[in-house]
From TrEMBL:
Protein name per the record: Histidine--tRNA ligase
Superkingdom of origin: Bacteria
Keyword flag Protein biosynthesis: yes
GO aspect biological process, one term: histidyl-tRNA aminoacylation
Residues reported to bind L-histidine: 83-85, 113, 127, 131, 259, 263-264
Gene Ontology CC: one annotated term: cytoplasm
Entry-linked Pfam families: HGTP_anticodon (PF03129), tRNA-synt_His (PF13393)
Enzymatic class: ligase
Amino acid sequence: MTKKIQAVRGMHDCLPLDASMYQYVETRIIQVLSSYGFSEIRLPVVEATPLFTHAIGDMTDVVEKEMYTFKDRRGMSVTLRPEGTAGCVRAGIENGLLYNQEQRLWYMGPMFRYERPQKGRYRQFHQIGAEVFGLQGPDIDADLIIMTAKFWKVLGISDYIHLELNSIGSIATRKNYHHTLIALLEDNVQILDADCKRRMYANPLRVLDSKNPDMQALFDTISPIGHYLDDKSHEHFNELCQLLDLAGISYRVNQRLVRGLDYYNGTVFEWITDSLGAQGSICAGGRYDTLVGLLGGRNTPGIGFAIGLERLVLLVQKVLPEITVPQSIDLYLIASGQGTERAMFLLSETIRNAFPDLKIMRNFGGGSFKKQFSRANKYRARLAIVLGEYEINHNQCIIKDLCKGTQQTVSLSQISFLIRMLSNILQT
Ligand code: HAM
């Protein structure tokens, strides 16, 4: 027998039941995004590799270890996007959306990272991300965070998720911190692993991302970047905290939160759950005021976040198991006997035209009435329209309420009456 071809490790099918749960979650988030004035932007999945090495930083885990990079047929190095911010900035610059303008954009789609797969961590995963350009005050940072809090409220999961907040200061703050950090790391170089030694001078902040347990004790002794903030960064962060207090958003200042991508400055945040084990970060983001300039645009401040959809759906399913997205249909058409199938075919289209929002299916493949009713039940249809030879000969049909077991006969010469009747039944 031919060997079955299976999905690539870490990349999953989303089966219909799960897909409807994703739709449920996505619809609610998109609704909140548009209520805050965000517009959708659709971006390519494949980008030129230097976009990510420049934006994310070539000494980050994502760029060094996790990118799906390959040569296209002309030898150009391209990468499956590991995240959405870089592509969004690239598109904004390329299409003249950013300079001297205010933009609120959201995107959704697959991202790719070659990580070790486990529950909540995949090689193809999906994000909904949002980016704001052209605004630099702490008020937009607060607005964005308040909006993310609204997602959890709308989804009913606010009790299972908490906010961690930090400021990593300006680029100048980082430079100062780098010097201090390098000196400290040099003093302890014998404890560092090969990766950290390699990153120590070029990108010392990324040394702190290491998960190597042998170095955690050393990291705990190092003062966090928050202790080195300049006055402006302090002021920005304090104002943000006050606005969040005013809005009643609880948070924990976590001075160890630095994020694993190089483009951030100032505000960084993460929404974390304790309900999913190791992969608890549901939504993460921060400010990136130099990224547009770094990618060739005119300096424009930016701030954004991305939600990991798989983790969010896992969380909703875990803490609210009672949320099931109905898999039922509204109406199933059944026909058996001479001339009934064509009449059913026409009738189904007439009803679909009258009720574009209803879920309507008709029987395929013939079969006895009993068999067709059992198919209608399998689809958990609310109503059935039944056409037999008797009904066709008398130009009528039967509407059967499959929940209540009641039925009525309606003339087919009065389609408008039939439609009204259906509409009345469906409203009860
Ligand atoms: P990130 O922290 O790398 O940030 O990813 C954001 C979220 O994506 C994480 O909090 C997590 O929920 C989800 N995620 C990341 N990797 C995986 C994975 N392998 N499997 C499943 N879910 C995953 C960014 O991507 C930034 N672009 C966010 C941002 C937007 N910052 C500013 N604007």
